[in-house]
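Sharing a chain and its predicted structure for anyone who wants a worked example. Both blocks are below, sequence first, tokens second.
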Amino acid sequence: MTRRRVTTESGATRTGLDRLALDDAEVVAQVRGKRLGLLAHAASVDRRLVHAEQVIRAAGGTVVARFGPEHGFSGSAQDMVPVPDGGDAEPMIDTEPMFDRSEQDRRVQTYSLYGETAAQLSPRREWLEGLDAVVIDLQDVGSRYYTYVWTAAYMLRAAASVGVPVVVLDRPNPLGGEIVEGAPQRPGYRSFVGAYEVSVRHGLTIGELLEWVRRRERLDVDALAVVPMIGWRRSMHFEHTGLPWVMPSPNMPTVDTAWVYPGACVLEGTQLSEGRGTTRPFEIWGAPGIDGAKIAAAVSVEGATLRPIEFEPAFQKHARTRCGGVQVHVTDRDTFRAHDTYLRLIVAAQNQLPGRSFWRRERYEYETSRLAIDLLTGGPEFRFSVTTPDRLQRVLERERRGASLFADDRRAVLRHEYAT
């Protein structure tokens, strides 16, 4: 078998997976000769677009179990669609195979960590027994609601309980690592869109966040090994890294989507379309009866332009129905604050739809007793504030104070250069 080498330009960011592909001895030692579980998805690729499973095998590790988060190991399922065990087991196709997959694939079981019930979010004990380690390689998007980090946290807890170490191949936070937005949840509002009390835009890499969880859970230091990146700085936007963008989930098509997501995901707690079923989800949003021009005129946004639009989602909310709304065009990422912006946009939309059922009341991420909007915003205060401008301002001020406190709290786990 001929190994293909990774070449990188001077100053380019190398992920943990890239370091493995480069035969970095420190990283290779974590996988060579070991029986491994792999928690990964479609975006778990190196800069050549070779999938983590193939890179691990080429480095001498044996993947004996695959674990898929929400959307599945292959990343093909839509949001909140349960994935059965083995339901999307095929790894990414390599146009120049480094090995013959056929025989080895027959020995690899794919387990879903996103099934029909909340109990299926954590791996079973028997799935982990016999493993030398679990490797996690997941591209996060830097927002509390994005469930991959919580799947990784549940894996860390479960693996630690049976003495199996977790190795995280770290990746960039596409929003950079300096700015923090939104307060952590209030007590009693943990869920799968926020399994721990962290800020909405947390400014952490997945490795840093898991170290934060390890400390909160008081797990042994040997329970977690983080392979840090080389050449990543906290001031970097994703494009600065030189890495390819691969959709980490079906409705995260571009880096631009990730920039609005810390605010736009809150739309999931309403009857407004968050733009699923369009080519620009989360940037485009609205509903029948919404006048986008009035919203654009009423809400002043720093770092973005609000463009009134009409659109018809192809699926999900208001499918094949003409909607009015707004597309949020981010013009200055350094000043744009998605969380603050979308909370104010939601209030403006609610004011145009008086008397209508506005909040989502269907089951949301396994929850039936608490409203989705309260889980997303971390408590009921925002929902109570939408008809009272003074109360909304107090909520926004509280969010900013909470973000500042979390920014201080997270300093102990920052592994990469921190620009003050």
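Comments welcome. The first helix runs from residue 16 to 21.
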